[in-house]
Amino acid sequence: MSLKNQSVEIQRLLNAFEDEASKFHDISLSTYFLTQNGANIDRKFISPNHTIMLWQYYGRIGPENDAATLMNNLKESELKWGLKGAELSCFALIEGEKSGLFVRMAQRAGSLFDQDEVGTINLRVVDEILQYERAAYPSVKPTAVTNSNPLAIWINFLLYHLSLTNPGREQAQKIEPDPFVLSMLTLERLAEDRAVGKVDRSTQSLGEVNFKIAISFPGEKRAYVSKVVDALRKALGPDAIFYDYDYQAQLARPNLDALLQDIYRNRSQLIVAFLCAEYGKAEWCGLEWRAIRDIIKSKADDRVMIVRFDDTPIDGVLSIDGFVDARVFGIDDVSRFILQRLNSLS
After folding, report:
1. Confidence (pLDDT) at 113
2. What domains are there in the chain, each with its CATH number?
3. Taking CA atoms, which of 86, 125, 293, 314 is between 20 and 30 Å from 282?
4. Separation of alpha carbons 28 and 156, rounded Å
5. Contacts of 70 (CB under 8 A, 6+ apart)
6. Percentage of the chain lying above the pLDDT 70 cut
7. Confidence (pLDDT) at 71
8. What pLDDT score does 28 carry?
9. Measured between alpha carbons, how far is 120 from 132 in angstroms, rounded to an integer?
């Protein structure tokens, strides 16, 4: 059954993931890569955990002996872990007390897609590396495989949705936010669009947009902030708000720090910073906060609006500085306050 006919199941899963996301489980999702030289991860896994192969780039198949080697490797392989002899294998690692629960829920989510939709996900997951190899070596056939397990299908879709399938990133990386929150956000988009697609909502090149609002927040608060952004987007339309997921593919670039500083410092009317204990620890929040502090220093502090989740001290914020308290006001109120502040600037 295709996504277009899965409205009841999508909503049921969305409610389930939202319920678990609200409990703030200590759980993480990471990807790591295995080459012929071994894995690029050298730490102990947190227990309990679950590892699953997502996809493999086997290599280039050319002369007849290459095909024979492939067939021999296929016969000798333990397919749970993929094909023997693959040049690059991508694995997902789920760690934490609720990893078993997430696996069960994710397997059900992976079953949402029909055969054509699964084929679309699998093709897009390995498309970048196949295109590169075809262009570099036109006389041979690059070969890749994906895992048909529903858990692997769901995680591959999450990574594609976030524009995180580039196999050139040959390093272990932790995926933010946690897998329950990420699944909830992805299902929200599926409920709206009913199609296999990316999280990006941009209609223009990022370098050409002047934003009405730029949002700065730590990944731990994404579930809350995403709902605020949804409300703002309905009021302001496309490309009015700088929210990282709306431009995920365009943000996968070198010198991202310079681009972000420019957006926050020079190309946004109003900057809304969601402050909390996690904000002060986050590397990218620190970069954004430097640009925000420079705005305050330049006596343009009317362009900065603070929303607080707790009372954690943040460098540059004084006790006399005003803020909206997210512990007191709900998402609708916070969204309305932001729009009121934006209108006052206009």
Report:
1. 96
2. 3-193 (no CATH), 206-345 (3.40.50.10140)
3. 125
4. 16
5. 58, 61, 83, 85, 143
6. 90
7. 59
8. 95
9. 19
HSE, side-chain direction, 13 A CA sphere, residue 126? 23
77: tokens are: 């392989």
Please, what sign has the CA dihedral across residues 99, 103, 105, 106? positive
H, E, C per residue of the chain: CCHHHCHHHHHHHHHHHHHHHCCCCCEEEEEEEEECCEECCCCCCCCCEEEEEEEEEEEEECCHHHHHHHHHHHHHCCHHHCCCCCCEEEEEEEEECCHHHHHHHHHHHHCCCCHHHHHHHHHHHHHHHHHHHHHHCCCCEEEEEECCCHHHHHHHHHHHHCCCCCCCCCCCEEECCCHHHHHHHHHHHHHHHCCCCCCCCCCCCHHHCCEEEEEECCHHHHHHHHHHHHHHHHHHCCCCEECHHHHHHHHCCCCHHHHHHHHHHHCEEEEEEEECCCHHHCHHHHHHHHHHHHHHHCCCHHHEEEEECCCCCCCCCCCCCCCEECCCCCHHHHHHHHHHHHHHHC
Residue 94's pLDDT band, with cuts at 50, 70 and 90, is very high
Handedness of CA 34, 116, 163, 244 (dihedral sign): negative
Confidence band, pLDDT 50/70/90 cuts, at residue 70: low
- C-alpha angle 155-241-314 in degrees, rounded to nearest 5: 85
Per-residue model confidence as pLDDT tens digits over 139-172: 778 888 899 999 999 999 999 998 887 665 556 7
The predicted model gives 28-43 an average pLDDT of 81
| Spatial separation of the C-alpha atoms in residues 86 and 96, rounded to whole Å | 29
> What is the token pair recorded at 114?
């029909």
At a CB cut-off of 8 Å and minimum separation 6, what does 84 contact? 73, 74, 76, 77
**Tens-digit pLDDT profile for residues 308-332:** 999 999 888 877 788 999 999 999 9
Residue type, 139: S
- Which pair of tokens denotes residue 13? 């899963």
What is the C-alpha to C-alpha distance for residues 256 and 283, in angstroms, rounded to an integer? 13
Report the length, in residues, of the chain.
346
